């Protein structure tokens, strides 16, 4: 029970930190440079320049009805965390605006750094099992009423409409910068969600698999999984070794395998996230 409460506190703290980072990216880079990078924040940016209404208040006004519609149509699984994220992001955006400077008037720098910071914040919010509402809710509602639209297509459609509106209100060039910002943001979200590629998965196919297995276990102190396969051409039965190592251990492993069997077949690929003994601990639910 204590672990569950602790995890809930960590999750909500993550939603607060992530929401503040999103607000910082909007205030310092995107809003002052008229970069409406999709979603509710992008729409709020356009409305701000058209009518002068504060971005945070506009996001809240748009998101609250969406949240209520989401609860009514999609069910209670939409959750309190979504409402919490919506409120924190909206308040942080308006409360921090008077105190944060505009760091650049270069739209390229603004789209890159703004997209990066917003993506970092969103990644933290998602990792904390939260959301800031907006585009996610619209896409889910579209999918509910029009099943032919997937969630991904719904997200793309909403962002495209906001960017098109920004292109009309501002200009086409700023709309293109908004697309760049969304691209950077999505890549950073993936990075936060999937990890920093600190590990490598290695598949080793060799006639000396047993000797290699022993050396890896005893000299590198890494676990090895033996997979059973057969050659597609010869039909010969062969053991395939699967090893997960850190980046710094890759060279050592390659030398070890080559010393035992120079004719071995080795495949090395990226691993985004590894949880278990010797790596990251499992997250509690």
UniProtKB/TrEMBL annotation:
<keyword id="KW-1003">Cell membrane</keyword>
<feature type="transmembrane region" description="Helical">
    <location>
        <begin position="46"/>
        <end position="71"/>
    </location>
</feature>
<feature type="transmembrane region" description="Helical">
    <location>
        <begin position="108"/>
        <end position="126"/>
    </location>
</feature>
<feature type="transmembrane region" description="Helical">
    <location>
        <begin position="12"/>
        <end position="31"/>
    </location>
</feature>
<dbReference type="InterPro" id="IPR003740">
    <property type="entry name" value="YitT"/>
</dbReference>
<feature type="transmembrane region" description="Helical">
    <location>
        <begin position="162"/>
        <end position="184"/>
    </location>
</feature>
<feature type="domain" description="DUF2179">
    <location>
        <begin position="222"/>
        <end position="276"/>
    </location>
</feature>
<dbReference type="InterPro" id="IPR019264">
    <property type="entry name" value="DUF2179"/>
</dbReference>
<dbReference type="GO" id="GO:0005886">
    <property type="term" value="C:plasma membrane"/>
</dbReference>
<dbReference type="InterPro" id="IPR015867">
    <property type="entry name" value="N-reg_PII/ATP_PRibTrfase_C"/>
</dbReference>
<feature type="transmembrane region" description="Helical">
    <location>
        <begin position="83"/>
        <end position="102"/>
    </location>
</feature>
<dbReference type="InterPro" id="IPR051461">
    <property type="entry name" value="UPF0750_membrane"/>
</dbReference>
<dbReference type="Pfam" id="PF02588">
    <property type="entry name" value="YitT_membrane"/>
</dbReference>
<feature type="transmembrane region" description="Helical">
    <location>
        <begin position="138"/>
        <end position="156"/>
    </location>
</feature>
<keyword id="KW-1133">Transmembrane helix</keyword>
<dbReference type="Pfam" id="PF10035">
    <property type="entry name" value="DUF2179"/>
</dbReference>
<protein>
    <recommendedName>
        <fullName>DUF2179 domain-containing protein</fullName>
    </recommendedName>
</protein>
<keyword id="KW-0812">Transmembrane</keyword>
<keyword id="KW-0472">Membrane</keyword>
């Amino acid at each position: 029970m204590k672990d569950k409460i602790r995890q809930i506190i960590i999750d909500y703290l993550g939603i607060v930190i992530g929401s503040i980072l999103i607000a910082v990216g909007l205030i310092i880079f995107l809003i002052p440079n008229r970069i409406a990078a999709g979603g509710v924040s992008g729409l709020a940016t356009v409305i701000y320049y058209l009518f002068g209404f504060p971005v945070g208040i506009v996001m809240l006004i748009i998101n609250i009805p969406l949240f209520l519609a989401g609860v009514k149509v999609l069910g209670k699984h939409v959750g309190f965390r979504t409402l919490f994220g919506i409120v924190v992001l909206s308040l942080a955006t308006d409360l921090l605006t008077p105190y944060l400077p505009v760091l650049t008037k270069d739209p390229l720098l603004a789209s890159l750094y703004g997209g990066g910071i917003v993506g970092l914040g969103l990644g933290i919010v998602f990792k904390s099992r939260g959301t800031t509402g907006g585009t996610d809710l619209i896409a889910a509602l579209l999918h509910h009423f029009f099943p032919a639209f997937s969630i991904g297509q719904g997200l793309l459609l909403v962002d495209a409409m906001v960017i098109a509106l920004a292109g009309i209100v501002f200009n086409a060039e700023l709309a293109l910068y908004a697309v760049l910002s969304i691209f950077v943001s999505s890549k950073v979200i993936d990075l936060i969600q999937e990890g920093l590629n600190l590990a490598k998965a290695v598949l080793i196919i060799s006639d000396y698999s047993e000797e290699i297995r022993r050396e890896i276990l005893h000299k590198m102190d890494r676990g090895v999984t033996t997979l059973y396969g057969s050659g597609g051409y010869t039909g010969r039965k062969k053991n395939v070794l699967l090893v997960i190592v850190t980046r710094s251990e890759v060279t050592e492993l390659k030398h070890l395998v080559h010393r035992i069997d120079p004719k071995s077949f080795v495949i090395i690929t990226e691993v985004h996230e590894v949880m278990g003994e010797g790596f990251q601990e499992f997250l509690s639910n």
